[in-house]
UniProtKB/TrEMBL annotation:
Keywords: Cell membrane, G-protein coupled receptor, Membrane, Receptor, Transducer, Transmembrane, Transmembrane helix. The chain crosses the membrane at residues 30-54, 66-83, 103-124, 145-164, 193-217, 238-262, 274-297. This is G-protein coupled receptors family 1 profile domain-containing protein. InterPro entries: GPCR_Rhodpsn (IPR000276), GPCR_Rhodpsn_7TM (IPR017452), TAAR (IPR050569). Residues 46-290 form the G-protein coupled receptors family 1 profile domain. It is found in: Cell membrane. One of its GO terms (cellular component) is plasma membrane. It holds the Pfam family 7tm_1. CDD domains: 7tmA_TAARs. It is a multi-pass membrane protein.
Length: 320
């Protein structure tokens, strides 16, 4: 993605104050738009199915599924708003103004921070379920999980507002009209790297290492305690499935944060477009994981697509 000196201006009437349009290969640009907008639509559709499923069917109103519901909400917003806006921001002139530009980055920070917090909560949920199963029903109640999710979102709003307080002044860092960039000073960038990446990742890895150790010991114990086999297998399967979710999260987020270690102002660099898209692809992959590993998701989708959820008492359907 290069801007040539003779390139057409974004806003002809502004002359020297206007940014220049990106010169992109037409066929490659069209293909890129089609692929990315398809990913955006699929992300929206699949996460909407997760939201409807968990919200509608009472059997799915469990602590773990409440966390998945919250994650699906953030993933839905990524597909609906962030991916399309990122495509437009990085491949064309920004025509939506400084206020929408600030809103885009503010929303990006909120959703990313909340998603990271929810992944940590999912790890805690599995840790308690595997490592302290006797106290799981009392410690991880639906009410407590809902409160934790709300606190997670409130923290994201507070943190991002504090983190971007200087940037939230529209147009402050734009060098020309038609540009939408994010500029963060070194101190704020380092603090964000620690608080939004290293600390959560460390917590997740430590919890899952503990889960792995306990899971191995439980698998051995199953051979001599037949009565607890069904329950233990169910919990271990859930831990494995959510473990895949966490691994995909790390694989999607690590390239972005690793890039910020070697490149300043990654968000304002057009060459980092694909790193940012990979950052958002986690929202596309999450519902794919549910479809592959959760039988209840397939059953609920079938009921939703066939419109059986509009039948009386459909919320009490047995889908587990």
């Amino acid at each position: 993605m290069e801007i040539q000196k003779g390139a057409e201006l974004c806003f002809q009437q502004l002359l020297n104050n206007s940014c220049r349009k990106l010169t992109l290969n037409w066929s490659k640009t069209v293909l890129l738009y089609i692929v990315l907008f398809c990913i955006s639509l699929i992300t929206v559709a699949l996460n909407l199915l997760v939201i409807i499923s968990v919200s509608h069917f009472r059997q799915l109103h469990t602590p773990t599924n409440i966390l998945l519901l919250s994650l699906a909400v953030s993933d839905f917003l990524v597909g609906l708003l962030l991916i399309p806006l990122e495509i437009l921001r990085s491949t064309t002139c920004w025509v939506f103004g400084d206020v929408i530009c600030s809103f885009y980055f503010y929303l990006t920070g909120n959703i990313t921070c909340a998603s990271t917090g929810i992944i940590v909560l999912i790890s805690v949920d599995r840790y308690v379920a595997i490592c302290d199963p006797l106290h799981y029903p009392t410690r991880m109640t639906v009410a407590r999980v809902k409160l934790s999710v709300c606190l997670c979102w409130f923290y994201a709003i507070f943190y991002v507002t504090l983190y971007l307080k200087d940037f939230l002044k529209p147009g402050r860092y734009n060098s020309c009209y038609g540009e939408c960039i994010l500029v963060i000073n070194d101190t704020a960038g380092t603090a964000d790297l620690v608080l939004s990446f290293f600390v959560p990742i460390t917590v997740i890895i430590v919890l899952y290492m503990r889960i792995f150790v306990v899971a191995v010991s439980q698998a051995r114990a199953m051979r001599s305690h037949v009565t607890a086999v069904a329950k233990s297998k169910s919990e271990l399967k859930a831990a494995r499935t959510l473990g895949v979710l966490v691994v995909v999260f790390l694989a999607s987020y690590c390239p972005f944060y690793c890039y910020t270690l070697v490149e300043e102002n990654v968000i304002s660099d057009s060459s980092a477009f694909f790193v940012v898209i990979a950052f958002y692809l986690n929202s596309f992959l999450n519902p794919m994981i549910y479809a592959l590993f959760y039988p209840w998701f397939k059953k609920s989708v079938n009921l939703i697509i066939t419109l059986q959820i509009f039948k009386r008492h459909s919320s009490d359907s047995n889908i587990l």
